Amino acid sequence: MSKPEVLMTGPYPTWDMEDLDSRYVIHRLWESKDRDAFLAEHADSVRAIATRGELGASADLMKRLPKLEIVSCYGVGTDAIDLRFARENGIHVTNTPDVLTEDVADLGMALLLAAARQIPAGDAHVRDGQWVKGNMHLTTRVCGKRVGVVGMGRIGTAFARRAAAFDCTLSYFARTPKPDLPYAFVGDLVALARQSDFLVVTLAGGEGTRGIVSGEVIDALGPDGIFVNISRGTTVDEAALLDALEQGRIRGAGLDVFLNEPAIDPRFARLQNTVLQPHHGSGTVETRQAMGKLVRDNLAAHFSGAPLLTPVA
Ligand code: 8YV
């Protein structure tokens, strides 16, 4: 039997590519010189898209593939996939929940610690020979502080567990209160920011959360506040965040996600009070191996007629 044909929107690590290449005919969209011609050439044979969280699958892309049966996403966030189009056209969608939760939460904690304790500045102080001239300036304590978590799903919960181990007091904003959790629900984001020393965003991206962290929320965090984002750049009014950071209206930020990744606003690079990461929350070998395996297992299940492991509702 001929191998099913899969369109990939961007590369995966070698260990996944080798396995995918052995099971499927892989069409590498990112290598094509003429995207339209490439899609037209394979339109009648592609049955699956293997994509990544940030690359997604637009309605426009799916429309061009009339034999498309499944979109398998290497990432938990499906905000870049047109889920409505997929649903209306009977196209299955899978993602990679759970396997990345702990690593993303780890990076959230690392960003909070790095921004508050100014780890990059300390590193530069040692490296650049400033230490022999004098001690580094003092920084901000993390343990015991008030942390507001925006979004209390899998990643928010894992982050809160870590912050609780640092003796922080936790409150959170979510669509609905989670009575099983020992943290205070605050249904108003401005109020949450006002009562928090640190605000940590773990929300899902997409239209429902676009710009939810507004300029007003950022101002409510105040001049001693530190902002951390491990969700999507879209959840924040980025222009307002940049203004607040530049003007010292908040103390600092630890950011893994931005608008227009990877060509982010150059204003970020000029800030001294931020710690920046290249959307790398899930970027460990362990997690990426688990994510790739889940994508491959979902595709294998689909093509063998077995139930999907992690279908997106
Ligand atoms: C990945 C992500 O960085 O899970 C997500 O939604 O954004 C990340 O884990 C991305 O999908 C890998 O390309």
TrEMBL record:
A Gene Ontology molecular function term of the record: phosphoglycerate dehydrogenase activity
CDD domains membership: HPPR
Top-level lineage group: Bacteria
Listed EC numbers: 1.1.1.95
Domain D-isomer specific 2-hydroxyacid dehydrogenase catalytic stretches: 13-312
Key words, A-Z: NAD, Oxidoreductase
The organism of origin for this protein: Rhizobium herbae
Domain D-isomer specific 2-hydroxyacid dehydrogenase NAD-binding: from-to ranges: 109-281
Protein name: D-3-phosphoglycerate dehydrogenase
Family (UniProt): Belongs to the D-isomer specific 2-hydroxyacid dehydrogenase family.
PANTHER family reported in the protein's UniProt record: 2-HYDROXYACID DEHYDROGENASE YGL185C-RELATED, 2-HYDROXYACID DEHYDROGENASE-RELATED
Pfam families: 2-Hacid_dh (PF00389), 2-Hacid_dh_C (PF02826)
Organismal lineage: Bacteria, Pseudomonadati, Pseudomonadota, Alphaproteobacteria, Hyphomicrobiales
